[in-house]
Amino acid sequence: MDRYERILKLHRILKVARLPVSQQRLMDELECSRATLYRDIAFLRDGLGAPIDSHDNTSSIFYNQDEAETFELPGLWLSSSELESLMAMHQLLARSSGEVLSGALAPLRSRIERLLDEQYQGKRFPIERVRVTRALSRQIDETVFRRVASSVLERHQLKFRYRARSTGSETERTVSPQRLTHYRENWYLDAFDPDRDALRSFSLDRIVDPTVLDKTAIDVADAELDKQLASSYGIFSGPPKAWATIHFSAKAARWVAEEHWHSKQEGHFLPDGQYELRVPYSNARELLMDVLRYGPDAQIIAPVALREEAKIQLRLALSEYEA
């Protein structure tokens, strides 16, 4: 945790605390030494003007209650993820022009704007200067979305026709919905399919004529959902079948080393400046798409089957250009 994060976290702990906070608790939560804590407290008090007070024995500190309500850190102290979340929510609310939600969501949109203003020294936050763009999102039938979401929230089974994107074939499914997942700008239904006795993920834009049934959905434990749906690379379900080893050129390494591909990824720089990345996967389709977008700067080393599949994809692409 860097100094910026510690100062921000220290401020938030003291801001919400109703009782004095012990130095030991602060050291534990900030993951720092006593000397570092003293420096951070001094900077927060003397450099930023925080209303810090302490007991006579200085074993615990707190914000002066008379000033705590009005004190905020000067400048923009939102983290990148917090700013992204607020701006994404603000833009999402701006796009919600339906009659049902427009009036109900207006106060929430105003609250987000006030919160951004508060974090910007009380001045108007220039929303137009920050953009959260959407890319590669697919159009969803809103009736489909509402019915699927209702089945998930109300815990009812769902019947629908599903058009497979890869083959174009259509099958009829009756499933027990578990979760709605928003992944890479698109919505997916995670569900238990009894006909296949397995968990599956369905893209909502491929679901046709969903019907919410009166039958109660079969619940799958959260631990099992995470094991089946989150342990492998990408959106495709199933426990990992193998680990992929990919080498990226020294040029691409500067980007890949900073990217998050999977929660269990392993990576390190090689002596020649290349970067080696290892990720677990079950279905190779999405992993191959992400690796191949790096073109000649990426090479799959192992397993052999995945390497051969990548070579086939590249040959097919080259044949289209040669034709």
From TrEMBL:
What are the WCX domain coordinates in residue numbering? 243-317
Could you tell me which residue ranges the WYL domain spans?
144-211
**InterPro entries for this protein:** CBASS_pafABC_assoc_protein (IPR051534), HTH_11 (IPR013196), WCX_dom (IPR057727), WH-like_DNA-bd_sf (IPR036388), WH_DNA-bd_sf (IPR036390), WYL_dom (IPR026881)
Question: Pfam families of this UniProt entry?
Answer: HTH_11, WCX, WYL
Q: Which stretches are transmembrane?
A: none
Q: Which residues form the Helix-turn-helix type domain?
A: 6-55
Q: Which domain of life is it from?
A: Bacteria
Tell me the protein's name: Transcriptional regulator
Origin species, per record, is Ahniella affigens
Task: Tell me the lineage of the source organism.
Answer: Bacteria, Pseudomonadati, Pseudomonadota, Gammaproteobacteria, Lysobacterales
